[in-house]
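Lecture 7 notes: from sequence to structure.

We start with a single chain of 317 residues. Read the sequence below before looking at the structure.
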Amino acid sequence: MKKIALFGAAGAVGKSIADALRARGIEYRVVGRNRGELEKTFGGDPLAEIVTWNPDDPGSVRAAARGVGTLIYLVGVPYDKFELHPLVMQKTLDGAIAEGVERLVLVGTVYPYGMPVTTPVTETHPRDPHTYKGKMRKAQEEVLLKAHAEGKIQGTILRLPDFYGPRTEKSYLHSLFEVAAKKGGTANMLGPIDTPHQFVYVPDVGPVVLDLAAKPEAYGRWWHFAGSGVMTQREIVDEVFAMAGRKPKTLVAGKTMLWVMGLFQPVMRELVEMNYLLTTPVLLDDSALVGLLGSVHRTSYAEGLKLTLEGYRPDNR
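Now the structure, written as tokens:
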């Protein structure tokens, strides 16, 4: 039986998918550049096969894809190097197709939609990105969709909103949980924080990805998973600090502050063009996904925020 492989497995979503595979007793492969990091995360799981790769080496890509039936694509690039997204996707596809991989699931973002023209956003919304990062993400998708249209591989895309969860350091909400768990300091937030927003609780993602990947009719298009629903960041701040028994204390960086900070911290400059997601949020409608899968599990904010805060406490490290 061919394996499921997680390319770019070391991130939060990769861990969630691995947890879902483990819960189902399915052997899987984790692929990444850093073997030490993969060993640290997956080394204790007898179901996990650890493989390192170099996407710039075609032989390495083919070796990582050998014997794989379904490739779940989670490969990240530096936030200031988004031009790499379509390039790495093409290199991965070339190797996967050469090795006879049958299916590829791209875990994607809302970036390709650009400024929303409807609320909520369904899968029929135009992909009209006005940002560089959105254009690169769209180009990445086009590489996959072209290969699917040509019959070389079955491809599908699952779009997610922003995410949160225990020890999810790349979440917008990371500073909030870290500060609240330590019961001291000020939470650094990206704002504005009073607009409606969607977050998905990371452990909910893994089962959805696996269920989607198993559906033949899922391929050749994209799908939405809206996560736990709509809530403002301020409401989340208030809930988390209340759970921690503290009054909210935040420092909110809006677009102007990000631009100023970007003069000294280049990564902050990269956030400026994406600030529209907080002023004019893309709120996903996932009724199509529910129709396909029958149901999806969504951890409520009340439960997810509680579990995440517990995961950030010093004694849970």
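The chain has a mean pLDDT of 95. Keep this in mind for problem set 3.
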